[in-house]
Amino acid sequence: MIGRTGPLTSIADAETRANRRLPRAVRLALRGGSGSGEQLRRRVDSFRRILLDARVGNQPQTPDLTTRVLDQNLALPVIIAPVGAQAVRSGAEVSAARAAARSGTVLGISNFSDTAIEDVIPHNPGTFTNFIG
User: Fold this and answer.
1) How many domains does the structure of the chain reveal?
2) Strands (E), 76-133
3) pTM for the predicted model, two decimal places
4) Could you tell me if 68 and 132 lie in one domain?
5) Cα-Cα-Cα-Cα dihedral of 77, 52, 86, 84, to 10°?
6) Could you say which of 54, 74, 92 is where a domain stops?
7) What residues of the chain score a pLDDT lower than 50?
8) pLDDT for 65-77, tens place per residue?
9) Phi, psi dihedral angles at 22 (to 5 degrees)
10) Same structural domain for residues 36 and 74?
């Protein structure tokens, strides 16, 4: 994300920015994870172990980020993961689907979504669900 505040440089940077923008209830729900929070702690620890090697030499003028996932061409090699926390704001899935489409990627819809996938797909045809029945 590059904007008025500059690019994100770390997980801590992303968390600091989110804390400024998100309502307190949403911050606490996301920060706490689910259950005992052990999986959340493990994931955060795994991100801390990743070191980025910032290489600036010999890079193409315009990097090609396109990739193919789930039989779809994506301009952005990121898929927005399904999260139940989108339900804290009515219509969040539609907003996320539109943002994903503008960015050239797809959105996963949570089983706990408050919006039917049929109502989201018109805004991003690549939208999918991870339904387990």
Assistant:
1) 2
2) 108-109, 128-129
3) 0.56
4) yes
5) 90
6) 54
7) 1-3
8) 899 987 889 998 8
9) -85, 145
10) no
